[in-house]
């Protein structure tokens, strides 16, 4: 979820499209902009287990000996990097040499598909998530986002579809030509909220990758005679994100009885670390949209120019404005992520995709990163859970979005797992990374600029909060250094240098366990959840704060 997106600000109405949704098979040529959808499975048609008994009834499975648990993070010669986004088809920008020289899918902010980020991004060019010499991974904490989904309810694409549909029905209609000709019979084919097929694959693939990398940590559960608890939230896509992850990790149908999945109840007014905005009031007003406001202002002149260019291909009752350009860029991302290809993508230049990405960078920095007054407060819940897990002690003070019912006992909140896996929304993960004080994610330039198109700011939404984003925290035992227990943190396969007081620069991103834990506790004590989430303080201007903390007055 992204609340208060660029367009939520541009048009406060939660509009769906103008008319009723039609079956895709009954659309006429004059139906441009109409919402269409298919329905599978057909009502009443269900699988027939009598005619088609399952494998438990049929028997004869053949030999099933197991091998060792894989532990590639420790044993492979190098770490597997993730670059492909099969089976999506991504065209070139309108002025690009080809689709390879400038990959537009890496400029879609939180709508980009996840990929392995260049290890040099945060200054540790020679660090790899593969375990450094003389170290062994003894525990891993995974925190990941759902894969690609449809737009959230009321997002810009459906508003744009409504505008096109209205134009079709208005006096004179409209005619599009040249690169926009497809718009004459374009219909709105996206649902809302749900994972797309590609999105399911992303979470399944991460489950497979996690088993290949960290499988051996399961031996710890085997020795203890117990199975892991893995956690997600109650929204349909969040449940299915975890189901796809565990299907990849444990296999189908093994996941059904090899893991306990804990579901956090996700709705306004509830406490949960995976969606802290449900309890943090100020996250849902102007305090929570410092970045969105700045991003909308930043894009306006660029998108107005793009609108001017594209309007030359339109006649009749349809005129594009800046917010339509934002919606059309989003349609490029969403249609590709959901349908595999989008005719909107080739309409835009490389620089327009750079502007689009930078707007997301500004938005996430200001809403959920170090330029936000409410981010660290929201991320405090995950921070406290992490401290609890690393310190092997239950939370005692309920001063964040943590949920005392689920986190208050070791049965539903185990403290001794060798492997943790939590799924969440990207805004919650970004809030958590801010609460964790991963300042290296913003680099020295501190925040993406709002006064110019920049190619050298470090903070990038597509690198931190893409669909399927992956945060990994490794606990390692290293010889012969003292103390031997070390921690490092990894965002989309780029190792992030740690800046807790006492952490020394380390080429592999290592810092002593106790030093990190002390830093996390210090950070926790800096964050005033009640003030940030419920207080009345001066609305900070984008760029004026650098800590993710609310100003005191
Ligand atoms: C389309 O027309 C309807 C009915 O007049 C109106 O309520 C809606 O706001 C219009 N949508 C857009 C995006 O202009
Ligand atoms: C567009 O449609 C509106 C509403 O039907 C009408 O008032 C206006 O004159 C039309 N404009 C053009 C250029 O056709
Ligand atoms: C963790 O602790 C609980 C409660 O003490 C125990 O039941 C469980 O077996 C332990 N699990 C592991 C993996 O050590
Ligand atoms: C904590 O989670 C439980 C289980 O989902 C839920 O019933 C309860 O209302 C939540 N508590 C708060 C304070 O939100
Ligand atoms: C860490 O655990 C110790 C020992 O159980 C406990 O005394 C201390 O309060 C815990 N610290 C935090 C921050 O929870
Ligand atoms: C829910 O969060 C609030 C902070 O907003 C906290 O005061 C309260 O104790 C929490 N309640 C539970 C049951 O987790
Ligand atoms: C399992 O791993 C946890 C966390 O690293 C550790 O505290 C515990 O001792 C291990 N248990 C066994 C049985 O190896
Ligand atoms: C957070 O990181 C900054 C460096 O960016 C450092 O100066 C500060 O001490 C850190 N604070 C904590 C609590 O880790
Ligand atoms: C917040 O404080 C300002 C300035 O003191 C005041 O004008 C405003 O009404 C207050 N808002 C709320 C919600 O209390």
TrEMBL record:
Superkingdom assignment: Eukaryota
Alphabetically ordered keywords of this record: Hydrolase, Signal
Signal sequence bounds: 1-18
Hydrolase among keywords: yes
Gene3D superfamilies according to UniProt: Phosphoglycerate mutase-like
Keyword match Iron: no
GO molecular function, one term: acid phosphatase activity
Matches recorded under InterPro entries: His_Pase_clade-2, His_PPase_superfam
The name this protein goes by in its record: Acid phosphatase
């Amino acid at each position: 979820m992204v609340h208060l997106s660029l367009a939520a600000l541009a048009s406060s109405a939660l509009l769906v499209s103008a008319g009723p949704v039609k079956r895709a098979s009954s659309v006429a040529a004059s139906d441009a902009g109409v919402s269409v959808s298919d329905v599978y499975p057909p009502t009443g048609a269900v699988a027939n287990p009598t005619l088609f008994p399952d494998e438990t009834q049929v028997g004869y499975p053949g030999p099933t000996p197991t091998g060792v648990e894989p532990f590639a993070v420790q044993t492979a010669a190098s770490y597997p990097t993730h670059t492909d986004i099969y089976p999506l088809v991504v065209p070139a920008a309108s002025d690009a040499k080809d689709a390879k020289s400038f990959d537009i899918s890496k400029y879609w902010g939180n709508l980009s598909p996840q990929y392995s980020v260049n290890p040099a991004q945060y200054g540790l060019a020679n660090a790899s998530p593969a375990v450094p010499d003389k170290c062994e991974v003894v525990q891993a904490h995974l925190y990941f986002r759902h894969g690609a989904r449809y737009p959230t309810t009321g997002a810009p694409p459906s508003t744009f579809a409504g505008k096109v549909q209205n134009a079709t029905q208005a006096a004179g209609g409209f005619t599009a030509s040249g690169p926009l000709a497809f718009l004459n019979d374009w219909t709105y084919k996206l649902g809302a909220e749900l994972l797309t097929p590609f999105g399911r694959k992303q979470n399944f693939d991460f489950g497979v990758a996690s088993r290949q990398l960290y499988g051996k940590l399961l031996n710890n559960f085997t020795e203890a005679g117990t199975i892991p608890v893995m956690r997600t939230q109650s929204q349909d896509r969040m449940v299915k994100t975890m189901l796809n992850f565990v299907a990849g990790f444990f296999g189908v149908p093994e996941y059904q009885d090899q893991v306990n999945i804990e579901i956090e109840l996700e709705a306004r007014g509830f406490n949960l670390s995976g969606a802290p905005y449900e309890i943090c009031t100020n996250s849902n007003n102007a305090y929570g949209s410092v970045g969105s406001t700045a991003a909308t202002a930043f894009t306006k002149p660029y998108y107005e120019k793009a609108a001017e260019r594209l309007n030359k291909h339109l006649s009749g009752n349809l005129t594009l404005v800046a917010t339509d350009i934002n919606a059309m860029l989003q349609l490029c991302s969403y249609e590709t992520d959901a349908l595999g290809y989008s005719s909107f993508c080739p309409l835009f230049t490389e620089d327009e995709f750079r502007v689009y990405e930078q707007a997301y960078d500004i938005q996430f920095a200001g809403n959920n990163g170090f330029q936000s007054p409410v981010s660290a407060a929201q991320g405090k819940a995950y921070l406290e859970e992490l401290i609890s897990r690393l310190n092997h002690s239950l939370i005692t003070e309920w001063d964040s979005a943590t949920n005392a019912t689920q986190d208050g006992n070791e049965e539903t909140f185990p403290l001794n797992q060798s492997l943790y896996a939590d799924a969440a929304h990207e805004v919650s993960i970004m809030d958590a990374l801010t609460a964790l004080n991963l300042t290296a994610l913003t680099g020295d330039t501190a925040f993406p600029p709002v006064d110019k198109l920049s190619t050298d700011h470090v903070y990038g939404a597509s690198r931190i909060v893409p669909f399927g984003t992956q945060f990994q925290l490794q606990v390692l035992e290293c010889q012969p250094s003292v103390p031997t227990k070390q921690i490092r943190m990894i965002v989309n396969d780029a190792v992030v240098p740690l800046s807790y007081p006492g952490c020394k620069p380390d080429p592999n991103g290592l810092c002593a366990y106790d030093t990190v834990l002390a830093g996390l506790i210090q950070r926790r004590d800096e964050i005033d959840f009640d003030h940030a989430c419920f207080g009345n303080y001066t609305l900070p201007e984008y760029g004026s704060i650098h800590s993710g903390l609310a100003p005191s007055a």
